[in-house]
Amino acid sequence: MGNWKMNGSLAGNATLLAGLRASTPSPDNCDVAVCPPFPYLAQAVDALRDTTITVGAQNLSQHGEGAYTGEVSGSMLADVGCVWVLVGHSERRTYHAETDQLVAHKAAAALQAGLTPVVCIGETLAEQEAGQTLGVVARQLAPILAMGNDAVSKMVIAYEPVWAIGTGRTATPEQAQEVHAAIRASLASVGAEDVRILYGGSVNASNAQQLFSMEDIDGALVGGASLKADEFLRIVAA
Ligand code: PEP
Question: What is the mean pLDDT of residues 183-201?
Answer without folding.
Answer: 98
